[in-house]
Design brief:
Layout lengths: L1 E7 L4 E7 L5 E5 L6 H10 L3 E6 L11 H8 L2 E5 L9 E3 L4 E4 L2 E7 L8 E5 L2 E5 L2 E2 L2 E2 L9 H10 L9 E4 L9 E2 H7 L8 H9 L9 H9 L6 H5 L3 E2 L1 H4 L8 E5 L3 H7 L6 E2 L5 H5 L4 H9 L2 E5 L4 H12 L6 E3 L2 H7 L7
Parallel strand pairs: 3-4, 4-5, 5-6, 10-13, 15-19, 16-17, 16-18, 18-19
Antiparallel strand pairs: 1-2, 2-3, 7-8, 8-9, 9-10, 11-12, 13-14
Helix pairs in contact: 3-5
The chain binds fe (ii) ion (FE2).
């Protein structure tokens, strides 16, 4: 198991790098833009392949590294389904699993600090974002924060984890690095309340100044999606309305880049070939299954995913691999559903 806790001293942010082995797939939680070079160096040194970059919530105090990591590694960007950030290529909800090779985290929806706050539980540890901090809790006075929701997230979800669960938060300003659920239950001053009303009163009277970076970070973090203008200009896209007419055509193959859990939850375009995005380089290389499919049948490959971000990266890679007629479904299954496209479950 590879586990690294990395620190950005400017914003007091902890970033976590996880992988099951050297040479394997990795995921990173809450990366900071200014530290991206450092993460990539470490990922290279440990011979890892970054597959997923995750933000626990929309940050107000630093600019996320998700967009830069996607641009430089073609990784999948992940946030919760409530988020207003456009960077996400995969959205998770309570009960889902966040996985890369050999690593599996349970997804907990823990709103309160923001309405898009999530926590991730991996066996003996929890990554609690800004929901539960060491001897503190994330403020609830902006970004649709809600102290009552946070009370529920903490008392009815996080504190229900085993007491020896290690707590790894997204921030610390005093140099603490890790705690446990049991320790926070006993010693976190914010949690020594008798009711949700008492907690809400406590949180509503903190009178904190806004974070220095807030006016910059929040708008920036909402707009780190993949720039797709060039892909559209080259005609490598098909919109959902036009794609409807392609279902069942013998000269077209829809290629589903999503994971099994996304397919089960949202359905599949009839007749699709499943080719998960992390395996794309092998699938489009000479001898790979998508290269073979295109060459042997002459079919046009139409890539799709959840929101059109993985498929936009896939079509660029496919064109580069000489799959000249390939295109991608703009807006992904989300747009397909809005166009009343047929889905198999
Ligand atoms: Fe935060």
């Amino acid at each position: 198991m590879i586990f690294r806790q990395l620190f950005d001293s400017v914003s007091g942010t902890y970033t976590y790098l996880l992988a099951s082995r050297r040479g394997g797939e990795a995921l990173i939680i809450d990366p900071v833009l200014e530290k991206v070079d450092r993460y990539l160096q470490l990922i290279h040194e440990l011979d890892l392949k970054l597959v997923k970059a995750v933000d626990t919530h929309l940050h107000a105090d630093h600019i996320t590294g998700l967009g830069a990591l996607r641009d430089r590694t073609h990784c999948i960007t992940v946030m919760g389904e409530q988020t207003k950030a456009d960077v996400v290529s995969m959205r998770l909800a309570e009960g889902d699993r966040l996985t890369v090779e050999g690593v599996s985290l349970d997804v907990l929806y823990t709103p309160g600090h923001t309405d898009d706050s999530y926590s991730y539980v991996m066996r003996d540890r929890v990554f609690s974002g800004d929901t539960l901090l060491i001897r503190g809790t994330g403020r609830t006075d902006f970004q649709n924060g809600d102290p009552r929701a946070q009370y529920d997230s903490i008392f009815n979800k996080l504190l229900k984890l085993p007491e020896d669960t290690l707590l790894f938060p997204a921030h610390d300003y005093k140099g603490e690095t890790v705690s446990t659920i049991g320790e926070e239950k006993a010693f976190n001053p914010r949690l020594q309340v008798k009711s949700v009303d008492e907690y809400a009163a406590l949180m509503n009277n903190l009178n904190l100044p806004n974070p220095k970076m807030m006016d910059v970070a929040v708008p920036a973090n909402m707009k780190v999606g993949l720039a797709q203008d060039e892909i559209a200009r080259r005609g490598w896209v098909v919109n959902a309305a036009d794609a409807l007419a392609l279902v069942g055509r013998p000269d077209v193959a829809f290629i589903d880049l999503r994971e099994d859990t996304e397919r089960a939850k949202h359905g599949v375009i009839p007749g699709s070939v499943h080719a998960p995005y992390p395996h794309l380089p092998a699938d489009i290389a000479p001898g790979g299954k998508l290269q073979e499919l295109a060459v042997s049948t002459g079919k046009r490959l139409v890539f799709y995913c959840a929101f059109g971000e993985r498929s936009a990266m896939a079509v660029q890679a496919a064109r580069h691999a000489r799959l000249e007629s390939s295109c991608h479904l703009q807006g992904g299954i989300d747009a397909w559903k809005k166009a009343d496209g047929p889905l198999l479950r």
